[in-house]
Amino acid sequence: MVELGFGLYFLVLFLMYLALPQRWVRMKNLRITQKKMVDDVLLWCHQNYFPTPKNHKLQYKIHYYQHKKFDGLYCGISKTITLYITPEKRVIDVIDTILHEYQHYMDIQNKKQVNLYSEVLTQVGYDKHPMEISARKFAKKHRVKCFENFQRKWF
After folding, report:
1. pLDDT tens string for the chain (155 positions)?
2. How many Å apart are CA 107 and CA 146, to the nearest integer?
3. How buried is 149 (Cβ within 10 angstroms: 0-12 exposed, 13-18 middle, 19+ buried)?
4. CA–CA separation, 99 vs 116, rounded Å?
5. DSSP 8-state symbol, 109
6. Which residues cross the membrane (predicted)?
């Protein structure tokens, strides 16, 4: 009897996992353009976390193919986020990437900070870099909230 109860419990958990939209919805399912989705997420970030300084206009580029190593990049010199988006990527993962790179934008605003980032990267590597850890935490903390904010508009 106990085994049946555990079986049903895990079946319900699995079905709940499948039912959560952010777990499976893909970029190809958007009703809006991918560019508009990126604009929405960045505006949401600006409004909720870090207003764009007048002299630091954040820019972005979208490449519609998968990079071998990266889902996104931030260049602190040009203040540009580069995103690699394919139709099969999950929306929640693209939001996570945008938020991750946005955290870098908040952290790296000038050449001195770019140099500091590079020095620490050389010393400790990517996985242990404090700015990377911070960016991963920021993205993980806010991605579902961001997704839910736009869910009705996008699908």
Report:
1. 656 666 666 566 565 555 555 567 999 999 999 999 999 999 999 999 887 666 667 899 999 999 999 999 999 999 999 999 999 999 999 999 999 999 999 999 899 999 999 999 999 999 999 999 999 999 999 999 999 999 999 98
2. 20
3. middle
4. 21
5. -
6. 6-25
Task: Find out whether 96 and 139 touch, Cβ atoms under 8 Å.
Answer: yes
Report the alpha-carbon distance of residue 36 to residue 98 in Å, rounded.
Answer: 13
CA–CA–CA angle 23, 139, 147 (5° rounding): 45
Q: Calculate the alpha carbon distances from 69 to 6, 47, 64, 144 in Å.
A: 40, 30, 15, 24
Strand partners, 59: 80
Residue with tokens 């690699």: 84
The two three-digit tokens of residue 51, written as one number:
């207003």
H-only helix segments in 21-90: 34-48
Q: Which amino acid is at 83?
A: L
Domain boundaries, the chain: 2-154
For the chain, what is the largest distance between any 2 Cα atoms, rounded to a whole number of angstroms?
66
Which of 28, 44, 40, 140 minimizes the C-alpha distance to 85? Answer: 28
* Helices then strands, each counted (H, E), the chain: 5, 3
